[in-house]
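User: Teach me something about this protein's shape.
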Amino acid sequence: MPKVAIVMGSNSDWPTMQQAALMLEKLGVSYTAKVVSAHRTPNLLTEFSEQAAEQGYQVIIGGAGGAAHLPGMIAAHTHLPVFGVPVRSSQLNGIDSLLSIVQMPKGVAVGTLAIGEAGAANAGLLAAQVVALSDTAVRDAIIAFRAEQTASVLALDELSLPQ
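Assistant: First, the predicted structure itself:
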C-alpha cells in the first residue's frame, strides 16, 4: 500500500511534482500520484481527503499553481500531514501559488515548500522523513542519502577556473 499520496491540480503540474516522486523512489517510499482539482473536481477532492488515512496514506503532498487551493482544501478534510508545493505559474512565476499555500488560517496547517522543482523534491524528502519515524529501512535510506550529499561536497576539494 502506498504510504504517500502526491496530488496535483492538473496534469501540467506533473513535470514539477515528479521531483517528489523521484525523491520518494530514491528513498524506497511507495507513493501514488494523481490529479485532483480543487476547482474542477471539488467532490473528488473531498472524498479523496476524507478517505486518505483509511487508504493507508501517512502523508499527502499537494502541488498546485495559480490560486493553489488544493493543499489547503486537502488539509481541511484530513488529519494527515500535508505538504504544499507551489507550482510555477505563467502569470506571476509561482509567487501567487506560494502565497496561496503558505497563508493558511490558524488551525489548518500546511507545510509549505519552495516554488517549483526544489520544493517538490524537498516535499518528497519531508514525506519520507515522516514515514521514517516508523520505518527503519526508510530511515536508513535517508541517512545514506545525507551521507552521499556530504561526501559529494567534500569531494570538491578546490575549485579552479577552466583553462
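Now, about its shape. Strands lie at 4-8, 31-35, 59-64, 82-86, 111-112. The longest helix spans residues 136-154. If you'd like, I can walk through any region in more detail.
User: That's plenty for now, thanks!
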